[in-house]
């Protein structure tokens, strides 16, 4: 039986090249080419993901998918970090247009489920090139890519409960996912490699060169064969429930989140942007303090 992935490959390979799209971006930098580069470009916020950035990531990836000259897409972050995750200061902005619970649900479902799943199934192979912080929403973007290459100083922290694009049970063995999530623990690049979330680790000064060299080798291959392999693997995971699982995780997280912020979402989110009162920031801060303590203890033992 022909799957939707097989039909998609046939249509993509048979279709003529689409007209070139020239977008102007303000939160990302998109560089077309044989190896297209998509760079999260808000280094002053550690590449925190605003609503606009998420939309521009989607538009840039769509531009790459439409470009017949693009063979591989590499996603990275400007400045010292890949991404510190959600832009909680924007979430707390009282100037944002008010939303009903239904409107907020539809917006978040579009951004975190429909868009992220579309990135996962992009008609090009994708590589997340991660350095520095890869926290919460940063993890989600990396998770939606086909491969993750990381610098040896990269630090990974997943969202601790079901929400948004939450694919941890698929990114690593389920019991390992539970162990990490229950503790809300930061992963070093080495541990992220050992559990299977990261494919390769390089020194920071070699990360870009090695990632681009790998991308060139992928680009040298028949794009139909590469795309067929990608979709066959994605389809195998979907037959086991991948897409349904991440969608259901979003629904579970939405139920809890909307219950917490149903009456005054901006007021509730305002605490997220306060260093003193922000429970999420405190969780992140605690996780990184433990991580540094563990690293220090390991060095002393060595």
Distance between the termini: 56 Å
According to DSSP, the number of beta strands is 9
Major sheet attributes: 6 strands, mixed
Poorly predicted ranges: 10-19, 265-273
* CATH topological fold name: 2-enoyl-CoA Hydratase, Chain A, domain 1
The radius of gyration over CA amounts to: 19 Å
* Percentage beta strand: 5-15%
Instruction: Determine the fraction of residues in helical runs and give it as a percent range.
Output: 40-55%
Tally of distinct domains: 1
Count, helices: 13
What's the CATH C level?
Alpha Beta
Q: Tell me the CATH architecture.
A: Alpha-Beta Complex
Average pLDDT for all residues: 86
Indicate the structural class. alpha/beta
H/E series: HEEHEHHEEHEEHHEHEHHHHH
Neighbour order of strands in the largest sheet: 1-2-3-4-6-9
Net shape: globular
Description:
- The protein is α/β, with parallel strands linked by helices.
- The protein has a single domain, classed as 2-enoyl-CoA Hydratase, Chain A, domain 1 (Alpha-Beta Complex).
- The chain is 54% helix and 12% strand.
- The strands form two sheets. Strands 1-2-3-4-6-9 form a six-stranded mixed beta sheet, with helices on both faces. Strands 5-7-8 form a three-stranded mixed beta sheet, sandwiched between helices.
- Helix 1 runs antiparallel to helix 10 and helix 4 crosses helix 5.
- The longest helix is centred in the last third of the chain and has 23 residues.
- The N and C termini lie far apart (56 Å).
